[in-house]
Amino acid sequence: MQLSVLDLIPVRTDQSSSDALAATLRLARTADELGYTRYWLAEHHNMPAVGSTNPPVLIAMIAGATERIRVGSGGVMLPNHAPLVVAEQFALLEAAYPNRIDLGLGRAPGTDPVTSWALRHGGPVESDAAEHFPEYVNNIRAMLSPEGVALSVGGRRHELRATPAAHSEPVVWLLGSSDFSARLAAREGLPYVFAHHFSGSGTAEALDLYRSEFRPSPELAAPRTFLTVNAVVAETEEEARRLARPQLLSMVALRTGAPLAQLRLVEDAEEVEIPDAHRPIAESMEGRWVIGTPDQAAQQIKDLAATYGVDEVMVNPIASASRGTDPAAAPAREETLRLLAAAV
After folding, report:
1. 179: which residues sit within 8 A by CB, 6+ positions away?
2. DSSP code at position 229
3. DSSP per-residue codes, 190-228
4. What does the pLDDT average to over 133-154?
5. Collapsing DSSP states into helix, strand and coil, what is residue 337?
6. Which of 42, 161, 190, 238 has most Cβ atoms within 10 angstroms of its Cβ?
7. How far is Cα 342 from Cα 340, in angstroms, rounded to an integer?
């Protein structure tokens, strides 16, 4: 069983952006020391509780502060970016940290419609993403290769490479929460990850579709996937649930259209009552998360891996913190990684 980390860089009410980044650096070093396989950074925009807005910048920061762990995007939301820009960013990251970089690509904007509009200079987002995503993925793959890609412009042939002299390429993964990317990854022979930590439904169907339709490629001979899950591990189940409650309140707010805010501290979250109408949403989400003691969490991880036929699980450590915690640290998130690694 391999364990990996997904990080959205949560920003608590007691933290500045600088504090949250400092806490993430400590978390990444902890994951590296504990032997976690990879550390992925998400892309979300205009959300008060999420600091991971720019995966390439964050990857450079994390890779430079760690020794061996693979670092990547979970993922770059391709509708927001020109394919050449993405290819150049990740080619440079691969050149700086050879054989340690993953490029996870997603089809969703990762934000609200107004921010999506701003990211694209007022251009279309949803229809453009759906129509051109497969083409953009293949363009990025071609530009990342040492051979590059040839473009015909004005009747002349132009060669285009993401770096002048590439010797290795980042591993390209497709991410998704529907069957679209599952089918595309299978057709192109690419590794694929379903956003189980966010969606929670349709995981088995998406993975079955990917595996059944997979076509071997030069990059990949057989299907390759893993599972993502939100996790909080503590010495007692009661403490784990206390640490998870701030994130639970944030997710309920997101799903019900309530105003979003920075992640509450544990004591503040305990004072908030979830409305009766929203309790089914909260219970459904909490039931899909890994929450408990080290032994409980390890068993849940193993059960999930067996259910979905994977040998790698990527945990999103969602624990908040108590009052008086160093703002530049996330000790409960670090403890989740330590306890889970020891138990699994």
Report:
1. 202, 205, 206, 209
2. E
3. --EEE-TTT--SSHHHHHHHHHHH----SS-SS--EEEE
4. 87
5. helix
6. 42
7. 5
Over the stretch 23-68, which tens digit does the pLDDT of each residue have? 999 999 999 999 999 999 999 999 999 999 999 999 999 999 999 9
Tens-digit pLDDT profile for residues 73-86: 999 998 888 899 99
Report the candidate in 311, 259, 263, 319 with the shortest Cα–Cα distance to residue 289. 319
The pairs formed by 35-38 with CB atoms below 8 angstroms and a separation of 24 or more are 35/341, 36/3, 36/4, 36/5, 36/69, 36/337, 36/341, 37/2, 37/3, 37/4, 37/69, 37/70, 37/312, 38/4, 38/5, 38/69, 38/70, 38/71, 38/72, 38/102, 38/314
Q: In sequence order, what are the beta bridge partners of 149?
A: 160
CB neighbours of residue 128 within 10 Å: 14
Predicted pLDDT at 122: 61
pLDDT in the model for residue 82: 86
Question: Rounded to the nearest 5°, which phi and psi values hold at 146?
Answer: -60, -30
Q: At what angle do helices 179-188 and 203-213 cross, to 10 degrees?
A: 20
Q: What is the pLDDT of residue 108?
A: 80
Tokens, residue 325: 């915690």
Q: What is the pLDDT of residue 127?
A: 54
Structure-token pair, residue 175: 């991410």
CA dist., res. 301 & res. 315, Å (int) = 9
